[in-house]
Each structure stands twice: as C-alpha cells, then as structure tokens.
Amino acid sequence: MRFVRQNDVKTVKRTGLRRGRGGVRGCIALLAVAAVVSGCGGEGSEEALERGSAGRRGAAEAGAAAGTGEPAHGQPRGARQHGQQRLDAPAARALDAYAGKVRRAHAARVAAAKRWGLAKVPLSAPAPPVRKPELRTREGFEVDGHTEDGLPPVFTTVPTRHKVVFLTIDDGAEKDPAFLRMMTDLRIPYTAFLSDYLIKEDYGYFARMRDRGVALHNHTLRHRHLPPLSYAAQKHEICGMQDVMEKRYGTRPTLFRPPYGSYDRDTLRAAATCGVKAVPLWNEEVFVDRWDYRESDRELRPGDIVLSHFRGTSDWKGTMPDMIRRFLNLVTAEGYAVARLEDYL
Asked: By CB neighbour count within 10 A (0-12 exposed, 13-18 middle, 19+ buried), where does 72 fall?
C-alpha cells in the first residue's frame, strides 16, 4: 500500500478539515486517500495532525511486523524482515525488456517466413553444446592408416541429441542477392565450401556473406576430382585454396570438403598438412525440386549434414530461394531446427 503524506496545515484547511466545517466528511476523505489514522473527530488542528502522524508510525510498524515491506519506525528503508524478499525493480525492468526483445524477434521471424513463402516459421536451434562432441570417421569412410597417422575425421553426421541439422552449400557458381536477403531475414545459419575458379569473378559477394556470420571453407582451387592426382597436385589444390581464403577473407579454413566427396589417403594427408582439422561430407542433398538421401530409409537424423549448391535457373528449374523453401519446409515439418555447423565442432 502506498502511503500519501499531506504536506502542511494549509493543505488540510483547503480540504475543509477544520473544527465545525465539514469535519466528518473531510476526515473520511483523508482516511480514503492516506489510509492512516488521522485523529478525526471534528478536529483539524496541528495537534490532530500530530496524532495522525503518530498513527502512521504505528501502521508502519504493524506493516513491517506483518511483512508488508514498510520498515518499522526507526529502521532504514530497505531493511529486510525475517523471511522477507525484496523485489529489485531494475531486475524486473530488465526481465520485461528481455521478454519484449524475444517477442519482437519472434514477430520478425513470423513476418519473414510469410514474406518468403514458407509453410511454417523455422524452428530456433537450441544453444550449442559447451563440450563439443568427439568427431570420428564414419565406418566405411576410413583410409589406410587413418587413425595411426592422425588424419582428419570424415563424417556425414555430427554426434548430438539435439534435433538439429546443418546446411552446407558448395562451390560458389550462383551469386543471388535474393538468397543473401532471405537467409539474413530468416536468420538461418549455413556453411559455405568454396572453389576459387567460381568465386573469383565476385569475391565481394562472399565477403558480404562472411560479414553476415557465415563461415567460409575450402572446396579446392578448381574443383578437380582429386584421387587420380599426385600427392603434390592434391596439396596444390587444397593449400592453394587455403592461401586464397586467407588473402580474400582473412582466415585459413579448418574444414575441407573434397569435390564430389571423393578422396584417398593422399587427399587427407595433404589436407592435414594444409591445416585442415575435419572433413564434413553429407547425409542428404537438397535440390530445388527434390531431396536425395544417403540412408535407405530416407529419414533425417539428429546432427545430419545437408548438402546443396550455389545454383540458379541456368542449372535448376528454380532459384536458390526456391531451394531454401524446399529445405526449410521439410526440416520444419519434421521438427528440426537448422544449427550452425561450426558451433558443434
């Protein structure tokens, strides 16, 4: 209860709290507004005010004993009584501000999903794990001496219990501004594996992608089929692309995807020499008009890596935004969110 304290005798006189003129009605008014004992009984003098002040002190002491939060007379404000919890107004305001931020973010996602023609709003990925999963080469994807030589693991699925998948896009042939806008509006994370011969005509497009939080990785200089090449030639393809990425985008990638998913022992040896730590392949591939699956049951699994390509109407019967709609509509319908691959590695 908020206590309203009258300022002085003149205020009381203006309300009619004087002897012989409206004393009873004025007393009731003061009781209603101030909720204190005001010494009403037909008196409106300074003596009555003093009695009212004493009544307020008594009410405050009683309120403190009852746990109302009003300190007892003589105690500083903020003193806590036994078992009494105090509401921190700044913390409450911060919580309200956070709730408002969440509401606005969701409203923005709803609007973006409608704007880009999605069937449902994409699900938000959970927080990534603090302890990263141990990456192991998928059975059947090993090369001779894989473990003994400490070669990078080759995998198609990231170990996780979260119902998430990872979108990866290869090469860099199509440079569609609408695709950048769509992914930014929807806040969908993805990873790009780039080949220099396709991106060199517009390095800036992928710089804008990087500036929006997309990780850029290695897909060789010229997208050649690597196993028939010598170790030196493979190393040139991989390390040469590392040099391009460092020069154009400021970092040497730690992830590498061999063209066509084909590799041999020399490929992985060269990749390790060039600073590569892991070789993510894929478990599904999405096109503008269909999905392809590695597994015979044609089902998504938690942690699956999904492949697509930078392609447009010259290669597909649609655009990259069309491909993203197909991708998001299926993963959302099956209860999956899209997570950032690098957050799990």
From this structure: middle
314 exposure class (CB count in 10 Å sphere: 0-12, 13-18, 19+): exposed
Candidates 90, 10, 4; CA nearest to 52 is 4
pLDDT digits (tens, 9 = 90+) for 128-146: 999 999 999 999 999 999 9
User: How many CB atoms neighbour CB 3 within 10 A?
Assistant: 12
Can you read off the two tokens belonging to residue 83? 């078992």
Q: What's the angle, vertex CA 189, arms to CA 177 and CA 301, rounded to 5?
A: 130
Least confident of 31-45, 112-126, 182-196, 318-332: 31-45
Dihedral sign of CA atoms 105, 308, 343, 332 in order: positive
- Cβ atoms of 144 and 265 within 8 Å: the answer is yes
What would the DSSP string read from start to end of 273-342? Answer: HTT--BEE--SEEE-SS-EEESSTT----TTBEEEEE---TTTSSS-HHHHHHHHHHHHHHTT-EEE-GG
Rounded Cα distance between 55 and 86, Å, is 25
Rounded Cα distance, 242 and 260, in Å? 19
pLDDT band for position 11 (50/70/90)?
Answer: very low
Contact assessment for residue 276 and residue 253, using Cβ atoms and an 8 Å cutoff = yes
H-helix or E-strand spanning residue 179: helix 177-186
pLDDT of residue 128: 94
Instruction: Indicate if the pLDDT at residue 71 is higher than 80.
Output: no
